[in-house]
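Case study: Alpha/beta hydrolase.
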Amino acid sequence: MTERTLFEPTASWVRAENRLVRAGDIAFAYRELGLRGGIPLVLLNHWGAVLDNFDPRIVDGLARQHHVIAIDYRGIGGSGGTAPVTVDEMARDTIALVRALGFARVDLFGFSLGGFVAQDVALKTPGLVRKLILAGTGPAGGPGIDRVGAVSWPLMLEALLTLRDPKACLFFSRTPTGREAASAFLGRLKERRRGRDKGPTPRAFLRQLEAIKAWGRQAPQDLARLRMPALIVNGDNDVMVPPMLSRDMACRFPDARLVIYEDAGHGSIFQYHDDFVSQALAFLAA
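Here is what the predicted structure looks like once written out:
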């Protein structure tokens, strides 16, 4: 095990500094914290997400034992350029960003769209990726992924008409437990008061949706080629990326562990953040 040599002075995600790194002709926004040295953990987030959409409890929990780096995709938040319309482009951007930061090997944690990107990075550069954490996500060509927009728009409209944040409808079940978890999660996203990221533009939001549709319509990838361990997580009531797709991925990876949380939706890792952090830390340490 590689010894960690320096503790990052930033004590929490809500106080992490906004930084930029140039990869090619694009300046990418990112934040980092945690223990330096060893294999860094790179966080890849969901459709339309910026840095402030990462759950502080999850990032802080992971940073207790790891060097954590969270990024904005091209054209999103503080990153420059135009948002790509394919996962392939996002994966190539991620590879370039990791190399620009000077890392030869990383762990990847991808949530939702980020899980698509993480899979594609691993297939393109398997030597770059040590371990994969894939949450609320599915494989290329997975049934229903190309209909994420069709499923999401009515829920977004419902949220608008009821004066709620769309994530409350998209990420959580409608049970009392789900509603309570949604409220707690949305509260955590507001904890950072200074240096907040820029929100996504409508154009970037729609271009990322095109990338999701294309991922759902492309030919399945050969996940059996990926020899690195994978932790696959979902909720039993995920309406955006159904848990059957997580089960499918778990069967196709040579070395996979599957966790399905009960009474949980797309945002199961936010609802069960304490348990998820424990599962992720154990997986990364194994």
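For the exam, be able to explain this: The domain at 6-285 is CATH 3.40.50.1820 (Rossmann fold).
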